[in-house]
Amino acid sequence: MPSYTIASGDSLWKISQDHGVPLDALTAANPQITNPDLIFPGQVLNIPEAQSAPQNRGIPEPAPSRDSASINAIPSPITANPTPAPPIPPRMPQMPQMPPPPMAHSPAPWNNGPSGTGFKTVAYFTNWGIYGRNYQPQDIPANYITHILYSFANIRPTGEVFLTDTYSDLEKHYPNDSWSEPGENAYGCIKQLYLLKKAHRHLKTLLSIGGWTYSSNFAAPASTACGRQTFARSAVHLLADLGFDGIDIDWEYPQNAEQAAHFVLLLEETRRELDRYSAQHLHGKRLLLTIAAPCGPSNYEKLRIADMDPFLDFWNLMCYDFAGSWDSTAGHMANVFPAPGGDGTTTTTTPFNADGAVNAYIRGGVHPSKIIFGMPLYGRAFENTDGPGRAFQGVGEGSWENGVWDYKDLPGEGREVVDGRLLASWCFDPVKRKMVSYDTPEVAGMKVEYIGGRGLGGAMWWELSGDHHVSHERSLVRITGEALGRMGGLDGSENTLVYPVSRFENLRRGFE
């Protein structure tokens, strides 16, 4: 099927007329265009065969809306690589709110094609969440999730990867767990995750290593060949023992060029060890390797992105924590686009933006389909402030730590505000002078449009315990999962259930 690259000033109506194709046929051939009013210069359309009789070109073209005209007037902000999907302009007008969810929710549609097809919905599950938060593996909304990142394992100075909470990971007995099975057996979250995989064959699990708390432990072992080899072998050994489908490395962050080079070598060694294990025990089935990727320029500019990319299955961009208690002014913590001031510079309301990071990784050689767009399931608070870009004093209390609120506890007092230019939202109480920055359902819908428009690989969340139950009308995981499912289906590639060398007898048997 021929293709056409959208130019400035184009509309779907104009393209259909120019190519002699009915508008409905053009729309049907391009399911990635979920909103015909939102197309962007640089996007590539499929053009179905023209009608035998040309359409009447004498019909006047309808005048574009102000919104679509403002989009089409903005040039592409980056130079595309030969393969990546085209970029979205650096600013967008107000986007339409997601339609209200139906009263009865059904699982998102799945794409059961080859591995890597369909959008990915990736979510962190923390092993400490089973305590005060009382968020158990059984609470994971598996109908809307394709990958779970089980967090976090730690690293010894030798490079050995080890579990951080053996009670949560392996020992806690859930209902129906036996107390009298002979031999060495796995219980806790590890067993429950495996049972979820059996019930939902699209659900892949990865052991996430590091995180903010343990990231200082990467540099030393990554600096030597012996340390890297110990890291890779011990990580894969845990994968084989515990029933994971891959490894996620969350190093926050390499501090200089030397550490960035060591990170590349660490990924290479881990990829080699994953492939070796798969060749021996899984008939070569692909095991996953991913990282948590920074969105701050001072961090991603140190990375050797092009050298890292061949070893990674996808990049989980942490498109959040752009503002917080460490700042001097209240701001947006998860905005997609920057806010240009009168001189065209970024204002203090949003010193960072996710779109800039996406562009940087694409320029660095990452195909857009390997970029997973991270979103928060929490909000960051600012007190004694007059709103975004204004000074604040203190962050107040939170759900579990000061200044941080679970999304399910929001909105607070005041009113919710959505900025369609930035793709950012917050609640603000002018009487108490309190602002909380977080994603609303409307902004989640806008971010889905952004993911689809940029050709990105899907969505990621930190972390699951912060969301509403999926039966709630404001559940961000469900809203996003359903929307991505409608847009192109979710990744339905099968997980792995066979772990023949696990030290745990019940896991080797598949918990039969």
From TrEMBL:
Cellular component GO terms, alphabetically? Answer: extracellular region
Principal subcellular localization: secreted
EC numbers for this chain: 3.2.1.14
GO BP annotations of the record are: chitin catabolic process; polysaccharide catabolic process
Localization: Secreted
* Residue ranges occupied by any GH18 domain in the UniProt entry: 119-487
Residues forming the LysM domain are 2-47
TM region(s), chain numbering:
none
User: What is this enzyme's catalytic activity, as reactions?
Assistant: Random endo-hydrolysis of N-acetyl-beta-D-glucosaminide (1->4)-beta-linkages in chitin and chitodextrins
From the UniProt record, which GO molecular function terms apply? Answer: chitin binding; endochitinase activity
**Keywords associated with the record:** Carbohydrate metabolism, Chitin degradation, Glycosidase, Hydrolase, Polysaccharide degradation, Secreted
User: Which InterPro entries does the UniProt record give?
Assistant: Chitinase_II/V-like_cat, Chitinase_insertion_sf, GH, Glyco_hydro18_cat, Glyco_hydro_18_chit_AS, Glycosyl_Hydrlase_18, LysM, LysM_dom_sf
Pfam families from the UniProt entry: Glyco_hydro_18, LysM
In this chain, the stretch annotated as Disordered covers: 51-89
Q: Which family does it belong to?
A: Belongs to the glycosyl hydrolase 18 family. Chitinase class V subfamily.
Query: What protein name does the entry list?
Result: chitinase
Organism encoding this protein? Aspergillus heteromorphus CBS 117.55
Taxonomy, top ranks, is: Eukaryota, Fungi, Dikarya, Ascomycota, Pezizomycotina
